[in-house]
C-alpha cells in the first residue's frame, strides 16, 4: 500500500489497538455513511430519556474479514482475575505511620512475610505474602481524661479486576491470579500475546476468595487452595495461518462465539475520527499575542514512530521517538477570528494527521505535563471536524441485513445471565414460588416450591426443568447463585436448547422429596411474569444479605449481577418423546439476525448524549449502564459535529490523502407500508404491557422504534420539524436544577467550586446554603430529612417539536427522488415517486410527529403499569390490614383490624366491635386508606381464617373499582390473573392472594427471631416452607423472665457467642420471688422489675467503671465493678455493696453502695427518715407552685403579669423525641423574670400598698379553694407575703403546703393552677450538719444560729450557718444548719478537703468530723432514693403511660398532653410524637 494513503503513525496506532481487519494487497476501499438515530430509554428516575446516536455503516468493495484473538479449544477467558503484590514491597504498601497531636496518638505494628525466596512459594500461598496484620493502638487524651484502645485488622494487596486480555484458562479453573508485573517486565512485553507478563506470571485455579472487602475480612484465613493450578495459555489470532482457523467475517464471529462475539469484536477494530486537513481553531487566546501562541505551540512535544521504509510494518519494526511541533514543520498562524479576539486559526502544514492528533490529545486530555496558564487556557478543535477531538464512545452494531438498531437492542445489546439486569422481557417467566439452597444430609441442594402445586407446602429438591437436568443448567455458569438459575431457567433453556415453552404452554418439572428420595413429576406447570416478579423480589432481598450473612450453599454469597458464562457453546437435548409442540423460539430472532448479516460492511453507533424528557437535564443512565466512557463530559454532540469528518477503521481506506473515509449522510427512505406494520406491532406490545402479559422495558419498544422503517421515517419528519426544545411549566417532583458538583457538568476551572465540591454537594451546600439546588429537597437529599419533595410547577426544557407540512412534503419528495436514482436511471425517475399524494404523506407524518411530540406515549405504557401496580398494592395492603389485621404492639402483639366503623355494614368482616357506654373506644389510627368520609370511632373485627380470602378479594374488587388510578380493564385483569378468569369468584381470587400475601411469622423468646421470614443478618435460619420454619420456631425454648444473660468475662475475651448467651435452665429455675413479665419490641418476654435502692450521694470509688474499658478514665464514681462492702464502709456504717438493678441480665454486674436495713431500699420514707422524718429529720419543706399553661397555639408564656417565665419539668426524664411538660411560672430568675418585666422592687421594709412598684404587688380576693386568706394587697418581697407562703420572699409564688397553695393560686386575683415541685426530698441529696431544735442545746432563732457559726483560721476549719424557717415541721420555728458550700476551709489546709468529687468518702468523713465537734449538732449523710420499677403486684398490674414507659409514673392528664395513652399490657403504640433523627427515613 502506498505510504501516502496510510501514514505510518496511523497504521501503527491501528496495530497497537489490535486491529484485526484483514486487507488485500491494495487494502479495502470503503465508504462510510451516517444517520442520526434517537431512541427512548429510561432515565435515572424511571422516566423517559431521549438518547441519541450517530449510526455509521462502513461498506467495503469486497468481503470484510477479521482475525480476532480467540482462546484455543478447551479454554475460556478467565472469569475472575486477582492481581497481587508482595506486601513487603514498600512501593505499593507500607505500615501506617505513627502520629500524635494534642488530642491523642496512634501507633501501628505490622507483621508481614518477607518476599518469598521462590515464586512458587507465592503461588502456593498467595495471601500469605500479599497481606499483613496491622495492630493499631490509639490513645485519646482529649476531654479531660485518657483512654486507650487497640484493634487488629488485615490489609492486603489483592485486587480483583477484569484485565485478562489474550489469556485463557481451562473452564474448570476460571480464576487467574498473578503477582503484579514490574515496570521492567511490562516494558519487555513487545505486544506478542505470548510475552504478556500476566501469562508468564499468572496461574489458573478453581479457587476464589469468598470476600475481599469489608470489615474484619481476612483473606489469609479463607481457603484458597492452588494445588490444582496450571499455567494459562495465550489467545490465538484466527488468521488462517499455520493451521489456525480464520480469518472470519463478522457473521462467522457471531456464529462461532455467540454472546462472547460482542466482547471480541469490541477490540477488533477501532474507528478513528479525523479531519481532512490540519487546520485547527484555538480558543482562550485573549491574553496572548501571535508570536506567543506560535512559540508555545512550536515548543510542544509529541510521541512519534520511526518505521523506516518498511511498507507494512509490525509493531516490533518501529521505534518510538520524541519530536517537537517545530521539528515537524511548525505552527502557522492564520489570524484571529473576526469579531472574536479570544479565537484564532492555526495550521500545521508539515505534520500528518496522526502526529497532530498526538499533540492535540496531550493538550485536550490532560496528558501534557505543562501546567502553565497558557496550557490551561487554550482549547482546540479541528475546523473541518468538530467531533474529532471528543473521542465519542461507540456501540458496536452488527451489520444486519436490515433494522440494525432494532436488531441490535433486541438480540445483541444485553448479555442475559441468570440474576443480572439484562434478562429479556419474554424470558421473565417462572413457575416457581420459592427457591433456596440448603444442606440436606451433607450435600447442598436447591429446594423449590411450585405455584401450580399448592399442596407442596414443604420444598423439594429440583431435579429438572422442561426436560433438562437442573445440574446441566447450572453447569454453564460461574458465580451465579443456584436459585437465580431456577428463576431464569427460560433464559438458560433458550441459550442451551434454542426453544422455551410458549406463553401459555405447560411444561414439566421433576422434584425429589428430601426425606423419602421419591421423585415427583409435575407435567402441567405454567410460567407467569407475576410469579417471576414475586420470586425475584424474594431472591434479591436474600442476595442483599450477602454482606451480613455467610450462605453455606447455593452461591448466594455471589452478587447476582456478577455472574459469568463459563460454557458459551454448550447445548442440551430433551429426552426423546418430550413434547415441544407448544414451544417457541427462545433466541428472540437472534439466530435469524446472525444468518442475515452482511459480510461486506461493519457498523457502529457514536453515542451523542441523553436527556431526560421530563426535566430537560442531561441523563447519564444509559451511559453508565453501557459503560460508554469518552466523549465530551455531560454535553451532547449532534450529527452536525461530524459533518466534514473522515474515518479510519483498521485497513479500510477511503479516497482522502490520509486514507480517511469521508462521512456522508445516508439517504432517507420512508416506506409507509412497512411503517404501518411496525405501528401494529408497537401497539400490540403496548397492549401486552397494559394487560400485564409481559413485563417490558425500553428494549422491547426499540424492537419496533429502532427498525429501519421507523428510523428513516422519523428522520424525514424530524428534518421537517422546528422548535425541538421548548420551555414549559409542568408539575414535577424531579430535580430540574443542575447539580453544582456534578463531575460531568461542573466548571472545573473554578478552583473555589472544585474545592467546595471535594466533599460532595454536602460540602458545597455548607458553603452555599442559599443555592437553589441546595434549598430544593427534590434535589438535595439532605433536605429530605426535614422537608418533603412536593410536586411543584417548574419551568423545564421539554421536547415539543412542530411539524411544518410544506417542508415535510419537500423532504419526502426529495428523499423519494434521490432513492429513484439507479444505474439505468442516474438522473432519477419522477414517475416513481411515492409521495405524490400529500394527504397520504402528511397522514404518516402526523403519526410520527405525534410520537415525537409526546415521546411518553409509547414508553408510558410500561411506566403507567408501574403506577397501576402501586395503586393495586396500596389497595391490597389496605384490604389485608382490614381483614387479616396487623400486629398491635399495645395488645401484646395480637392482631387487630385497622378498619374503623360505626356499624357492621362498614366492615369487610361484617362485624363492628362497638364499645359499651362505659368502655373506652378502641379507635384505629388513620392508616391512609380513606375507609370513610366520616370519622368512625370503633374498630372492625377481623375475618375468620376460612373466610379471609374471599373477604380480601371482595374488598380489593370494591376498592379498585372506585380507584380513579385504575381502569376497568385492569380490574378485570387482576381478577383474571389472580383467579384464572375475569369471572372468577371472590373465593378463587382470595385463595391466590392469601397464598402469596399471607405468611407465618416467628416471634418470641430466645432466638426465635432467626426463623422469622423477615429476619435479616448472618445468623438467620435458611429454613424454607411453613412446616420446617414453624417446627423450628416452636422448638425454641427460653427463660421467660430472663431470656439472655450477659457474661462480661466472655465479652472481654471476645467470645461473642457466649457474651450475651441464652440463660441456662439452671439459672432460670434458680430464681426466687416474684417478677413482672412484659413484652419486648421483638415479641419476647422478660422480667420488667427493677429493685429500688437507697444510696449515699457521695461517690464511693476512684477508678474505672470496668478495667476492660480501655476508653474509660479514672474518676470518682458511684458505680463500678470494683465496689464492695469494704469500699462502702468508708462512707459510713450500715452501707453495703449491692448489684445495680438495671444490669440484672449480667452474670457479674457492677455494684453500688446502698443503705442496709428493713425496707430501706423499697420504702422512700424509711430511706429518707433522717431527712424528712418527723422525729429524726430536719424536715425540709415540700414546695407547691402556682403555674399557668402556655399558649396552646404558640407554646409561649405571657409577656405581662406574673407568669412570664417558661419552665420545663426537669424532674421528668423524657424519652427521645418526647418533650418535657412545660409551665408558665412566676420566678425571679430566668428569661422574662419579674425583675426584667417590672424592674427593681422597693426594697424598704414595707407591706401591702407600701410597695411602690405595682408590678411587685399581688391583690388577693380571698375566694380561692377553701380559702381563709385575708383579701387585700401584698408585697411580694415583704414579710406579709412570706407569712402567706411560708417561704422567704425569693421563692415567689411557692408554698410549703398544698392546701395553702390551692387557697392562693386559685384566687381570682391570680387565677392559676397548682403543681408539686418538691415533696420535701430534694434537699435530702446533700449531706448536712443541723443543730437540735429541742432540748438544752437547741438553736431556736436566727441570732442563736448566727452565733453557732465558726470562723476558719490556720488549720482550723469553720463554717457559716443558715437559718431556715421553712424547715423543722410543725411546732418548730426553724432549723439552723450548714451544707458543704457553707464550709470555710482553714487557710493552712487543702482547699479540696471537703470536695467529695476530689476526695470521695474522705471528704464526707471530714465533714462529719467538723459537724460532730459542735455541741448539739447532728450529721446527716446525703442520699438518694430510687423507687423500684414493677417490683410489686400493684405496680405490675397498674396502668402506665405508653409514651414514657414503665419506669416513670405520670398521671392521665400528663400522659395525654404528651400524646400518649395509658395502657395495662404490652408496650403501647409509642404515642403520637415526632420521630427522632435516628428513626427518620428519606
Low-confidence runs of at least 5 consecutive residues: 1-20, 22-26, 719-724, 799-811, 832-845, 855-863, 1463-1482
The counted number of beta strands is: 73
- The class by helix and strand makeup works out as alpha+beta
Mean pLDDT: 80
**Which word captures the global form?**
elongated
First-last Cα distance: 65 Å
What percentage of residues falls in helices of 4 or more residues?
25-40%
Beta-strand share of residues: 15-25%
Radius of gyration: 43 Å
Q: What does the main sheet amount to?
A: 8 strands, mixed
The helix tally amounts to: 44
What features would you describe in this structure?
25% of the residues lie in helices and 22% in strands. Helix 11 (404-411) packs antiparallel against helix 19, helix 18 packs antiparallel against helix 19 and helix 20 (708-719) packs across helix 25 (838-853). Strand 27 and strand 28 (468-469) form a beta hairpin. The strands form 26 sheets. Strands 2, 3, 17, 24, 35, 36, 37 and 38 form an 8-stranded mixed beta sheet that branches. Strands 25, 26, 27, 28, 31 and 32 form a 6-stranded antiparallel beta sheet that branches. The longest helix is centred in the middle third of the chain and has 28 residues, at 856-883.
Amino acid at each position: 500500500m502506498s505510504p501516502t494513503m496510510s501514514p505510518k503513525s496511523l497504521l501503527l496506532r491501528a496495530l497497537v489497538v489490535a486491529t484485526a481487519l484483514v486487507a488485500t494487497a491494495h487494502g479495502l476501499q470503503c465508504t462510510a455513511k451516517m444517520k442520526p438515530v434517537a431512541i427512548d430509554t429510561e432515565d435515572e428516575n424511571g422516566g423517559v430519556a431521549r438518547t441519541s446516536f450517530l449510526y455509521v455503516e462502513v461498506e467495503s468493495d469486497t468481503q470484510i474479514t477479521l482475525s480476532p484473538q480467540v482462546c484455543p479449544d478447551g479454554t475460556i477467558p478467565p472469569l475472575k482475575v486477582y492481581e497481587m503484590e508482595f506486601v513487603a514491597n514498600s512501593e505499593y504498601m507500607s505500615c501506617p505511620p505513627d502520629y500524635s497531636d494534642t488530642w491523642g496518638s496512634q501507633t501501628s505494628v505490622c507483621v508481614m512475610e518477607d518476599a518469598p525466596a521462590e515464586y512458587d512459594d507465592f503461588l502456593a500461598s498467595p495471601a500469605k505474602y500479599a497481606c499483613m496484620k496491622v495492630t493499631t493502638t490509639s490513645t485519646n487524651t482529649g476531654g479531660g481524661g485518657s483512654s486507650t484502645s487497640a484493634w487488629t485488622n488485615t490489609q492486603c494487596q489483592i485486587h480483583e479486576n477484569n484485565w485478562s486480555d489474550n489469556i485463557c484458562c481451562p473452564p474448570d479453573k476460571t480464576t487467574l491470579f498473578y503477582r503484579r508485573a514490574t515496570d521492567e517486565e511490562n516494558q519487555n512485553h513487545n505486544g506478542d500475546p505470548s510475552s504478556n507478563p500476566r501469562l508468564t506470571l499468572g496461574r489458573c485455579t478453581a479457587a476464589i476468595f469468598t470476600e475481599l472487602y469489608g470489615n474484619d475480612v481476612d483473606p489469609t484465613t479463607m481457603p484458597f487452595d492452588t494445588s490444582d493450578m496450571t499455567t494459562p495459555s495465550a489467545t490465538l489470532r484466527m488468521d488462517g495461518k499455520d493451521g489456525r482457523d480464520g480469518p472470519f467475517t463478522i457473521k462467522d464471529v457471531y456464529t462461532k462465539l455467540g454472546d462472547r462475539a460482542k466482547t471480541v469484536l469490541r477490540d477488533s477494530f477501532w474507528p478513528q475520527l479525523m479531519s481532512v486537513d490540519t487546520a485547527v481553531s484555538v480558543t482562550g487566546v485573549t491574553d496572548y499575542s501571535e508570536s506567543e501562541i506560535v512559540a508555545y505551540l512550536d515548543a510542544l512535544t509529541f510521541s512519534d514512530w520511526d518505521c523506516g521504509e518498511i511498507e507494512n510494518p509490525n509493531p516490533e519494526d518501529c521505534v518510538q521517538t520524541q519530536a517537537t511541533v517545530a521539528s515537524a514543520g511548525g505552527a502557522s498562524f492564520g489570524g484571529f477570528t473576526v469579531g472574536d479576539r479570544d479565537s484564532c486559526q492555526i495550521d500545521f502544514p508539515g505534520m500528518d494527521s496522526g502526529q497532530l492528533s498526538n499533540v492535540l490529545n496531550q493538550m485536550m486530555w490532560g496528558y501534557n505535563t505543562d501546567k502553565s496558564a497558557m496550557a490551561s487556557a487554550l482549547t482546540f478543535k479541528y475546523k473541518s471536524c468538530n467531533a474529532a477531538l471528543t473521542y465519542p464512545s461507540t456501540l458496536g452494531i452488527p451489520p444486519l441485513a436490515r433494522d440494525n438498531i432494532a436488531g441490535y437492542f433486541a438480540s445483541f445489546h444485553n448479555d442475559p445471565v441468570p440474576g443480572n439486569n439484562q434478562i429479556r422481557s419474554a424470558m421473565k417467566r417462572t413457575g416457581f414460588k420459592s427457591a433456596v439452597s440448603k444442606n440436606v444430609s451433607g450435600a447442598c441442594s436447591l429446594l423449590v416450591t411450585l405455584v401450580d402445586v399448592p399442596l407442596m407446602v414443604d420444598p423439594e429438591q429440583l431435579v429438572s426443568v422442561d426436560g433438562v437436568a437442573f445440574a446441566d443448567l447450572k453447569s454453564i455458569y460461574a458465580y451465579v447463585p443456584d436459585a437465580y438459575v431456577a428463576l431464569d431457567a427460560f433464559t438458560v433453556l433458550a441459550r442451551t436448547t434454542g426453544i422455551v415453552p410458549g406463553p401459555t404452554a405447560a411444561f414439566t418439572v421433576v422434584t425429589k422429596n428430601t426425606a423419602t428420595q421419591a421423585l415427583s413429576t409435575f407435567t402441567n406447570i405454567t410460567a407467569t411474569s407475576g410469579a417471576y416478579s414475586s420470586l425475584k423480589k424474594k431472591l434479591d432481598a436474600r442476595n442483599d444479605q450477602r454482606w451480613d450473612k455467610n450462605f453455606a450453599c447455593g452461591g448466594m454469597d455471589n452478587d447476582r449481577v456478577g455472574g459469568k458464562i463459563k460454557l458459551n457453546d454448550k447445548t442440551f437435548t430433551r429426552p426423546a418423546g418430550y413434547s415441544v409442540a407448544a414451544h417457541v423460539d427462545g433466541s428472540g430472532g437472534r439466530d435469524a439476525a446472525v444468518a442475515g448479516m452482511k459480510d461486506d460492511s461493519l457498523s457502529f453507533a457514536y453515542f451523542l448524549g441523553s436527556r431526560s424528557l421530563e426535566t430537560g437535564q442531561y441523563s447519564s443512565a444509559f451511559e453508565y449502564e453501557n459503560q460508554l466512557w469518552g466523549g465530551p463530559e455531560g454535553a451532547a454532540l449532534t450529527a452536525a459535529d461530524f459533518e466534514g469528518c473522515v474515518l479510519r477503521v483498521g485497513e479500510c481506506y477511503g479516497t482522502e490523502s490520509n486514507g480517511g473515509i469521508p462521512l456522508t449522510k445516508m439517504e432517507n427512505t420512508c416506506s409507509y407500508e412497512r411503517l404501518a406494520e411496525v405501528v401494529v406491532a408497537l401497539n400490540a406490545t403496548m397492549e401486552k404491557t397494559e394487560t400485564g402479559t409481559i413485563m417490558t422495558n425500553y428494549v422491547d419498544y426499540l424492537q419496533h422504534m429502532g427498525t429501519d422503517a421507523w428510523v428513516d421515517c422519523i428522520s424525514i419528519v424530524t428534518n421537517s420539524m422546528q422548535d425541538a426544545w421548548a420551555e414549559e411549566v409542568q408539575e414535577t417532583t424531579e430535580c430540574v436544577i443542575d447539580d453544582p458538583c456534578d463531575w460531568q457538568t461542573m466548571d472545573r476551572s473554578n478552583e473555589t467550586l472544585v474545592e467546595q465540591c471535594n466533599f460532595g454537594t454536602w460540602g458545597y451546600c455548607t458553603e452555599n446554603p442559599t443555592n437553589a439546588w441546595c434549598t430544593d429537597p427534590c434535589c438535595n437529599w439532605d433536605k429530605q430529612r426535614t422537608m418533603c419533595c412536593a410536586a411543584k410547577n417548574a419551568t423545564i426544557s421539554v421536547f415539543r417539536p412542530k411539524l411544518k407540512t410544506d417542508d415535510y412534503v419537500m423532504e419526502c419528495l426529495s428523499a423519494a427522488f434521490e432513492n429513484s436514482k439507479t444505474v439505468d436511471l442516474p438522473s432519477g425517475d419522477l414517475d416513481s415517486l411515492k409521495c405524490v399524494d400529500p394527504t397520504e404523506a402528511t397522514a404518516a407524518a402526523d403519526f410520527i410527529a405525534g410520537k415525537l411530540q409526546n415521546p411518553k406515549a409509547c414508553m408510558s405504557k410500561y411506566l403507567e403499569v408501574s403506577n397501576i401496580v402501586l395503586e393495586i398494592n396500596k389497595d391490597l395492603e389496605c384490604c389485608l390490614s382490614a381483614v387479616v389485621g396487623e400486629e398491635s404492639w399495645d395488645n401484646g402483639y395480637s392482631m387487630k383490624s385497622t378498619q374503623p366503623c360505626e356499624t357492621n355494614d362498614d366492615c369487610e368482616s361484617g362485624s363492628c366491635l362497638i364499645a359499651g357506654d362505659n368502655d373506652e373506644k378502641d379507635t384505629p389510627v388513620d392508616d391512609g386508606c380513606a375507609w370513610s368520609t366520616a370519622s368512625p370511632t370503633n374498630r372492625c373485627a377481623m375475618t375468620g381464617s376460612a373466610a379471609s380470602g374471599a373477604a380480601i378479594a371482595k374488598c380489593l374488587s370494591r376498592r379498585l373499582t372506585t380507584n380513579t388510578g385504575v381502569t376497568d380493564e385492569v380490574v378485570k385483569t387482576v381478577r383474571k390473573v389472580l383467579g384464572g378468569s375475569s369471572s372468577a369468584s371472590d373465593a378463587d381470587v382470595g385463595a391466590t392472594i392469601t397464598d402469596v400475601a399471607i405468611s407465618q411469622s416467628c416471634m418470641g423468646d430466645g432466638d426465635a427471631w432467626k426463623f422469622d421470614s423477615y429476619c435479616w443478618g448472618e445468623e438467620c435460619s435458611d429454613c424454607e416452607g411453613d412446616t420446617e420454619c414453624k417446627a423450628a420456631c416452636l422448638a425454641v425454648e427460653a427463660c421467660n423472665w430472663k431470656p439472655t444473660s450477659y457474661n462480661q468475662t466472655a465479652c472481654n475475651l471476645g467470645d461473642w457467642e457466649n457474651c450475651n448467651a441464652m440463660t441456662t435452665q439452671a439459672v432460670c429455675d434458680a430464681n426466687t420471688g416474684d417478677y413482672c413479665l412484659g413484652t419486648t419490641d421483638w415479641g419476647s418476654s422478660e422480667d420488667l422489675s427493677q429493685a429500688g435502692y437507697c444510696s449515699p450521694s457521695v461517690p464511693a470509688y476512684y477508678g474505672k467503671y470496668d478495667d476492660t474499658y480501655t476508653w474509660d478514665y479514672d474518676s470518682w464514681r458511684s458505680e463500678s465493678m470494683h465496689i464492695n462492702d469494704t469500699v462502702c464502709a468508708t462512707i459510713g456504717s450500715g452501707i453495703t455493696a449491692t448489684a445495680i438493678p438495671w444490669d440484672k441480665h449480667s452474670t457479674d454486674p457492677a455494684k453500688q453502695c446502698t443503705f442496709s436495713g428493713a425496707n430501706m431500699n423499697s420504702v422512700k420514707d424509711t430511706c429518707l427518715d433522717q431527712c424528712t422524718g418527723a422525729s429524726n429529720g430536719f424536715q425540709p419543706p415540700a414546695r407547691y407552685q402556682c403555674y399557668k399553661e402556655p399558649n396552646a397555639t404558640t407554646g409561649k408564656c405571657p409577656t405581662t403579669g406574673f407568669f412570664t417565665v417558661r419552665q420545663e419539668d426537669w424532674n421528668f426524664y423524657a424519652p427521645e423525641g418526647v418533650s418535657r411538660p412545660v409551665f408558665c411560672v412566676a420566678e425571679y430568675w430566668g428569661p422574662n423574670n419579674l425583675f426584667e418585666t417590672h424592674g427593681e422592687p422597693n426594697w424598704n421594709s414595707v407591706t401591702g400598698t407600701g410597695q411602690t412598684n405595682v408590678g411587685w404587688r399581688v391583690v388577693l380576693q380571698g375566694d380561692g379553694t377553701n380559702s381563709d386568706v385575708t383579701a387585700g394587697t401584698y408585697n411580694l418581697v415583704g414579710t406579709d407575703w412570706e407569712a402567706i407562703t411560708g417561704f422567704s420572699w425569693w421563692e415567689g409564688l411557692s408554698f410549703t403546703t398544698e392546701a395553702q397553695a390551692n387557697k392562693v393560686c386559685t384566687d381570682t386575683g391570680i387565677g392559676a393552677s397548682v403543681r408539686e415541685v418538691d415533696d420535701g426530698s430534694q434537699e435530702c441529696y446533700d449531706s448536712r450538719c443541723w443543730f437540735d431544735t429541742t432540748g438544752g442545746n437547741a438553736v431556736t432563732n436566727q441570732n442563736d444560729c448566727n452565733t453557732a457559726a465558726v470562723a476558719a483560721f490556720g488549720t482550723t476549719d469553720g463554717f457559716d450557718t443558715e437559718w431556715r424557717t421553712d424547715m423543722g415541721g410543725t411546732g418548730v420555728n426553724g432549723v439552723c444548719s450548714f451544707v458543704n458550700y457553707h464550709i470555710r476551709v482553714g487557710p493552712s489546709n487543702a482547699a479540696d478537703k471537703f470536695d467529695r468529687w476530689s476526695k470521695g468518702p474522705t471528704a464526707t468523713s471530714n465533714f462529719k468530723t467538723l459537724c460532730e465537734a459542735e455541741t448539739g449538732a447532728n450529721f446527716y449523710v446525703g442520699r438518694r432514693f430510687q423507687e423500684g420499677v414493677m417490683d410489686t403486684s400493684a405496680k405490675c398490674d397498674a396502668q402506665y403511660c405508653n409514651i414514657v414507659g414503665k419506669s416513670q409514673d405520670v398521671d392521665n392528664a400528663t400522659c395525654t398532653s404528651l400524646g400518649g395513652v395509658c395502657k395495662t399490657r404490652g408496650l403501647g403504640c409509642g404515642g403520637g410524637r415526632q420521630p427522632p433523627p435516628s428513626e427518620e427515613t428519606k
